[in-house]
């Protein structure tokens, strides 16, 4: 017999009517989030044209993949599957419920024939089982949680939610079973039919059915109303956050326009963030969306080596302030602590791990900007590097080398207007440390061997990126402005970088200040030369493991080119954490100049590289090279770290 | 109340010795210029006093016209104005006389602070000479100053210890560096504000110079002389190394 909705239930339409207040409570909760987030400032425009489909402010691809499908959550496979089963199971069950409503209200014939058997029966029962399995996994994990879930703050409301969902699914199945036990087998409903067989003969079935039916409906409505007041709000906020996130890796800091400061008025905007109200709406949406799952905590080089910083800790503090409406409370930075704010290496591993598209480093760096540009606060050693950058335009305080020492006794051409094709940009990290100077010499040899038209600047300089990472956007803007001016005078159109930090600065930030030139990282250029057969290499066959510099890999998706280079001089070996999941060397965000608390990040990473058994550790960043070389000293006396340019140079055939 | 801080713009004092070269007996002009190391400590002490006492803080310098761009950092740190006497003498007596003239023009000055020595000539005599010319007491190697009942409580620090003193009336102090007077990083707003603060340039006055003339200037040359000791037998190598070190009187 065809299923009759609201069979055995009198006044069943009450549930439909009650859904209206539940939805109103839901709507009000979402509106409260909206109002909170609207208190933020408009986001800084990045001024970059992205090749990405956009509907209004929403990036469609990111919305669908990261927001709806939730791709990042599957990086933890079991949790991902459990979450997927629960989410998609509940989606199907909700569709089923809507179809029942449609049948009641508009006589939609959903209980007929094959559709009834395959969808309303088979699919929905399977969906129910899947969701139940998923939610049970998640509940058990909440009851026996890994550290990441509980550190700083456990989102314990999830336990209530999970219990609620289990109650909804279990009552749902029993209602189905009780109904079928009295009305006869429903084709396709394999769980309901089985339960019906077990329940058959119970005299109180109609009463059980009635009570369960109302319980099921009321819990469901209560849960819907509860969504915006609980972590379940991620159902709404996570897709929104993913859709509004500019689909570029990295913290997306943009630049600051300092023109407002030139005027006569005393009213100049406060720089950086000292209180919640200074954050952008996207930052506030991030804070509202964060689920405290701690995946960022697990991958953060600072948090994992005993520093005061944990990206989760920062988000928890920010969320507490937001929850308590402390929009103008400027105790925020001191609560999070200056140490924590400066411990961030800006490696963006947290962003990569975050399942809901939160941009933690952006929030941290905005607070850092305030500390340095308004409060003049910076840790001692980083402060010395900063002072050097300010006075000498390079941060390598106490260096034993002059800017041109790296090319002593070497014939390196200068860039000439209209004649030279590439400007070989040396930068500070290559010029002022003995170990890294060889990278530049190797690169010069490669370019000469390949017959590439290149030249260097007569006066070596820094991009100003360390200033930006330390929080001094003003100094960065000043140095970048001078560089751009010089590039324009020289007519530079193509630049080769040896340092991924220079590359990132040139491609992400310089264009916003008016720069118009193409930049190619040396890893990509060398790969191109190898592929074109311009340089020929002898493969040593030795095991070489490749350490991904954060600013080349995670921040700029240059992952395969350096690997191809390594593969052409040796046998590539991967570390457990590689590619976009690579572990930072510890130098980023100005932390090359720091007195580290706890375990040293570079030693942690050097050990990981050493454990691969590789003979050589290759990288493509001078900072990574310095950090790993230093970190390795704890374990071996061998000089194992090489830049890919050095490797290529030594295997080059004339 | 008015406090004067003396500041001298010098070539980068951290140029690595391997990269250091002279032109006409002075540092090559290619090196970046900046306020001297200890002078910045003196500016910081001045700014701290200004904040506590509400004093006016004037930077007085003797140097080149172009030095103003570097001296502005002192304004960004919190000083109120710059007075620059334009001149290029290296004679401490001439410099002191010119600084005295500039200070005399500032009206009543309660305290003069200077770095313990400049970062280029490293003589540390100008503040003392100036104190003599002003007829003020001179306290060298001061690290902190406090205003106490009409006078100054000064801590003097040397390699062997610390001495507390009280100075009644006016004085010249030369400041050495301690963690408490690490120069602050100017806030961005202060950098912009510094662009609007007054800069006064004075012409040099004639002054008698010392009867000293420079004969030559040399800088240490970096040389590496390498002697390889065969290391086939480690014990033997250590013996040879020790013998050689003793022969050359390193041990």
Question: Can you lay out the helices and strands and say which pair or pack?
Answer:
The complex is a heterodimer of chains A (654) and B (251).
Chain A: H1 13-38, E1 54-55, E2 58-59, H2 60-69, H3 77-106, H4 113-143, H5 147-150, H6 157-183, H7 190-199, H8 205-226, H9 234-244, H10 259-262, H11 281-289, H12 295-299, H13 311-323, H14 332-336, H15 338-343, H16 349-353, H17 360-373, H18 380-392, E3 422-425, H19 428-431, H20 434-450, E4 454-455, H21 465-470, H22 473-490, E5 494-497, H23 500-509, E6 518-521, H24 522-531, E7 536-537, E8 543-546, H25 560-569, E9 571-573, H26 601-610, E10 616-619, H27 622-632, E11 641-643, H28 644-650, E12 652-653
Parallel strand pairs in A: 3-4, 3-5, 5-6, 8-9, 8-10, 10-11
Antiparallel strand pairs in A: 1-2, 7-12
Helix pairs in contact in A: 1-8, 1-11, 2-9, 3-4, 4-6, 6-7, 6-8, 9-11, 20-28, 24-25, 26-27
Chain B: E1 2-6, E2 9-11, E3 22-23, E4 26-27, E5 33-35, H1 37-53, E6 56-63, H2 68-77, E7 81-86, H3 92-104, E8 111-115, H4 126-134, E9 138-148, E10 151-158, E11 161-168, E12 171-175, H5 188-194, E13 199-203, H6 234-247
Parallel strand pairs in B: 1-6, 1-8, 6-7, 7-13, 8-12, 9-12
Antiparallel strand pairs in B: 2-5, 3-4, 9-10, 10-11
Helix pairs in contact in B: 2-5, 3-4
Can you tag this structure with a few keywords?
heterodimer, A: 654 residues, mainly alpha, 4-stranded parallel beta sheet, 28 helices, 12 strands, elongated, B: 251 residues, alpha/beta, 9-stranded mixed beta sheet, two-stranded antiparallel ribbon, 6 helices, 13 strands, 28% strand, globular
């Amino acid at each position: 017999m065809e299923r009759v909705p609201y069979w055995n239930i009198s006044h069943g339409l009450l549930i439909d009517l009650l859904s209206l207040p539940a939805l109103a409570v839901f709507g009000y909760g979402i509106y409260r989030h909206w109002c909170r987030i609207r208190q933020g400032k408009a986001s800084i425009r990045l001024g970059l044209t992205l090749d990405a489909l956009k509907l209004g402010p929403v990036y469609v691809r990111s919305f669908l993949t990261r927001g709806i499908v939730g791709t990042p959550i599957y990086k933890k496979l079991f949790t991902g599957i459990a979450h997927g089963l629960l989410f998609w199971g509940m989606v199907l069950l909700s569709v089923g419920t809507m179809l029942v409503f449609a049948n009641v209200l508009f006589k939609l014939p959903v209980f007929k024939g094959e559709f009834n058997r395959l969808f309303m029966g088979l699919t929905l029962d399977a969906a129910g089982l899947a969701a139940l399995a998923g939610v049970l996994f998640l509940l058990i994990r909440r009851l026996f949680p890994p550290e990441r879930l509980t550190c700083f703050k456990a989102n314990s409301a999830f336990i209530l939610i999970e219990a609620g969902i289990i109650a909804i699914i279990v009552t749902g199945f029993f209602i189905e079973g009780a109904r079928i036990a009295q009305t006869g087998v429903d084709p396709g409903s394999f769980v309901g039919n089985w339960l019906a067989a077990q329940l058959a003969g119970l005299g109180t079935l109609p009463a059980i059915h009635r009570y369960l039916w109302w319980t099921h409906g009321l819990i469901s409505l209560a849960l819907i109303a509860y969504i915006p007041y609980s972590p379940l709000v991620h159902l709404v906020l996570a897709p929104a956050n993913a859709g509004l996130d500019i689909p570029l890796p990295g913290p997306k800091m943009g630049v600051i326009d300092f023109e407002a400061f030139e005027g006569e008025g005393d009213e100049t905007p406060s720089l950086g963030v000292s209180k919640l109200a200074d954050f952008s709406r996207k930052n506030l949406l991030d804070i509202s969306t964060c689920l405290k799952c701690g995946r960022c905590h697990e991958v953060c080089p600072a948090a994992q080596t005993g520093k005061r910083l944990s990206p989760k800790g920062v988000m928890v503090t920010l969320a507490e302030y937001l929850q308590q409406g402390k929009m103008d409370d400027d105790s925020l930075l001191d609560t999070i602590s200056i140490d924590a704010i400066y411990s961030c290496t800006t490696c963006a591993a947290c962003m990569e791990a975050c399942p809901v598209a939160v941009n933690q480093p952006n929030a941290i760096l905005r607070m850092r900007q305030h500390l340095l540009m308004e409060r003049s606060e910076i840790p001692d050693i980083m402060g010395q590097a900063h002072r050097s950058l300010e006075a000498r335009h390079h941060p390598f305080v106490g260096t034993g080398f002059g800017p041109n020492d790296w090319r002593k006794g070497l014939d390196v051409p200068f860039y000439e207007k209209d004649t030279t094709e590439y400007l070989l940009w040396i930068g500070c990290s290559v010029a002022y440390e003995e170990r890294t100077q060889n990278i530049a010499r190797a690169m010069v040899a490669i370019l000469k061997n390949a017959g590439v038209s290149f030249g260097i600047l007569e006066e070596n300089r820094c991009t100003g990126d360390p200033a930006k990472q330390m929080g001094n956007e003003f100094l960065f803007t000043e140095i970048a402005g001078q560089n751009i001016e010089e590039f324009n005078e020289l007519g530079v159109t193509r630049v080769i970088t040896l340092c991924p930090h220079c590359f990132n600065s040139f491609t992400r930030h310089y264009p916003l200040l008016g720069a118009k030139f193409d930049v190619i990282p040396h890893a990509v250029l060398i790969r191109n030369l190898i592929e074109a057969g311009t340089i020929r290499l002898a493969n040593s066959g030795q095991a070489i493991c490749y350490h991904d510099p954060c600013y080349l890999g995670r921040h700029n998706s240059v992952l395969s080119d350096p690997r191809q280079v390594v593969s052409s001089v040796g046998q590539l070996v991967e570390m457990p954490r590689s590619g976009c999941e690579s572990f930072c060397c510890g130098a980023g965000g100005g932390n090359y100049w720091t007195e580290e608390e706890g375990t040293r990040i570079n030693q942690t990473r050097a050990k990981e590289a050493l454990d691969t058994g590789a003979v050589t550790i290759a990288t493509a960043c001078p900072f990574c090279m310095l950090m790993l070389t230093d970190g390795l000293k704890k374990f071996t006396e061998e000089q194992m770290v090489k830049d890919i340019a050095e490797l290529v140079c030594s295997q080059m055939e004339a | 109340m008015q406090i004067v801080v003396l500041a001298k713009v010098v070539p980068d004092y951290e140029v690595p010795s391997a990269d250091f070269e002279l032109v006409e007996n002075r540092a090559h002009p290619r090196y970046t210029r900046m306020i001297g190391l200890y002078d910045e400590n003196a500016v910081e002490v001045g700014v701290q006093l200004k904040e506590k006492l509400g004093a006016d803080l004037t930077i007085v310098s003797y140097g080149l016209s172009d030095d103003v761009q570097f001296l502005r950092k002192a304004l960004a740190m919190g000083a109120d104005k710059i007075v620059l006497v334009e001149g290029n003498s290296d004679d401490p007596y001439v410099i002191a006389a010119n600084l005295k003239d500039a200070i005399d023009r500032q009206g009543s000055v309660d305290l003069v602070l200077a770095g313990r020595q400049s970062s280029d000539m490293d003589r540390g005599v100008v503040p003392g000479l100036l104190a003599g010319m002003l007829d003020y007491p001179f306290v060298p190697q001061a690290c902190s100053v406090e205003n106490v009942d009409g006078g100054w409580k000064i801590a003097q620090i040397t390699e062997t210890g610390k001495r507390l003193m009280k100075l009644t009336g006016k004085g010249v102090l030369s400041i050495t560096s301690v963690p408490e007077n690490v120069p602050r990083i100017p806030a961005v707003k202060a950098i912009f504000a510094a662009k609007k603060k007054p800069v006064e340039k004075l012409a040099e006055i004639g002054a008698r110079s010392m009867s000293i003339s420079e004969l030559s200037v040399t800088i240490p040359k970096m040389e590496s002389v390498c002697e390889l000791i065969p290391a086939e037998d480690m014990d033997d190598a250590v013996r040879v190394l020790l013998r050689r070190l003793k022969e050359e009187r390193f041990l």
